């Protein structure tokens, strides 16, 4: 029986792009997803883009019996763990849901892995674990501090759990990947970000306005301590991010232990700069107006990705215009996203 990679949350935005990269690299893949923020129809697009199919199991990481069954019936060699809730603003309103899904769900997954002697894990973390960092850029040596929102705190709690279990049992091989701001879409225009309901992230919102599904975009905060008053973020193309997961999986499989890597470009762009780039690339005018800052948002956040470059031989190759161009191609090719099945 061939070994397989289990990808929790593999039907989601980042997960689906990473599944394509895994399939193109020759891996056998099982997607495990509860479809609360994704569509099953993405499976056809994954197969069309990669030329191979992933196995799909609908399930929740809180479902311990189902997870045990998945591990018992399959020869799983490693897990890429994307499953979880991810909206900063929503986490301020519904913190218990974030701790239940992101923390309890991960614990349930880790127990199933341990019971079935699977100890290789790539964990989807976030730059929010650095809290409101005072020094830019942020490296892995930057202090971890109290995140400004429950989403970020849930990621930091899981990171602590992973460090503790690896210290207790050296069989664990763990890669912690701290994302900055993933945007963009697959170059084919067949895979992209398709949140259920109104998007929370900047590029999907810009696309919805440009295509006429929304009247305008709200810019949260015009008085941040930044050059133009709007928040600055490090935006990374989702395909670069997916490639980073394969590099991290290969590295941690070979070396063992536990390591953390920032995945970003090392360049910060303000909200207004992203809007300007979107207008330039798409030739679409974007109406926007300023609103008050959102609770939990920080003024600026961008990465020092040099550790990933050294350890993983990985760098982000696609720039902001590439990210916008691929997002717009996805939006125009699939204006309503993935269809319901």
Question: What do you see in this structure?
Answer:
With 341 residues, this protein is of the alpha/beta class. The protein has a domain at 4-184 and 235-266 and 304-317: Rossmann fold (3-Layer(aba) Sandwich), CATH 3.40.50. 40% of the residues lie in helices and 18% in strands. The chain has helices at residues 13-24, 42-50, 64-73, 88-93, 95-115, 150-168, 202-210, 238-255, 271-282, 306-312, 320-333; strands spanning 4-8, 28-33, 55-58, 76-81, 120-126, 173-179, 181-183, 217-220, 232-233, 235-237, 257-263, 269-270, 288-291, 300-301. The strands form four sheets. A seven-stranded parallel beta sheet has the order 3-2-1-4-5-6-11, sandwiched between helices. It has a three-stranded mixed beta sheet with strand order 12-9-14. Helix 5 (95-115) runs parallel beside helix 6 (150-168), helix 7 (202-210) crosses helix 11 and helix 9 crosses helix 11 (320-333). The longest helix has 21 residues, at 95-115. It is globular and about 55 Å long. The two termini are 31 Å apart.
Which key terms come to mind for this protein?
single chain, 341 residues, alpha/beta, Rossmann fold, three-stranded mixed β-sheet, 11 helices, 40% helix, 18% strand
């Amino acid at each position: 029986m061939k070994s397989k990679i289990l990808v929790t949350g593999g039907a989601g935005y980042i997960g689906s792009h990473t599944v394509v990269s895994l399939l193109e690299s020759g891996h056998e893949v099982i997607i495990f997803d509860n479809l609360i923020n994704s569509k099953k129809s993405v499976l056809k697009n994954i197969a069309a883009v990669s030329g191979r199919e992933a196995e799909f199991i609908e399930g929740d990481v809180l479902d311990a019996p189902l997870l045990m069954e998945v591990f018992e019936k399959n020869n799983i060699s490693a897990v890429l763990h994307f499953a979880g809730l991810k909206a900063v603003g929503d986490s301020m309103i519904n913190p218990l849901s974030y701790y239940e899904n992101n923390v309890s769900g991960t614990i349930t997954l880790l127990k199933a892995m341990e019971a079935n002697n699977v100890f290789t894990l790539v964990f989807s973390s976030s730059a929010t674990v650095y809290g409101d960092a005072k020094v830019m850029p942020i490296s892995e040596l930057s202090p971890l501090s109290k995140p400004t929102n429950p989403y970020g705190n849930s990621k930091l709690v899981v990171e602590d759990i992973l460090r503790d279990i690896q210290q207790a049992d050296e069989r664990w091989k763990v890669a912690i990947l701290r994302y900055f701001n993933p945007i963009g879409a697959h170059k084919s225009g067949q895979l992209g970000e398709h949140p259920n309901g109104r998007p929370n992230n900047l590029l999907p919102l810009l696309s919805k306005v440009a295509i006429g599904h929304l009247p305008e975009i709200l810019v949260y905060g015009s008085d941040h301590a930044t050059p133009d008053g709007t928040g600055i973020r490090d935006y990374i193309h989702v395909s670069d991010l997916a490639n980073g997961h394969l590099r991290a999986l290969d590295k941690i499989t070979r070396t063992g232990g536990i390591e953390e890597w920032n995945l970003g470009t090392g360049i910060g762009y303000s909200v207004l700069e992203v809007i300007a780039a979107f207008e330039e690339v798409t030739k679409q005018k974007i109406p926007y107006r300023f609103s008050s800052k959102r609770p939990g948002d920080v003024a600026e956040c961008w990465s020092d990705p040099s550790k990933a470059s050294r350890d993983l031989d990985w760098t982000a190759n696609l720039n902001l215009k590439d990210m916008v161009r691929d997002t717009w191609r996805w939006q125009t090719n699939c204006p309503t996203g993935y269809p319901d099945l």
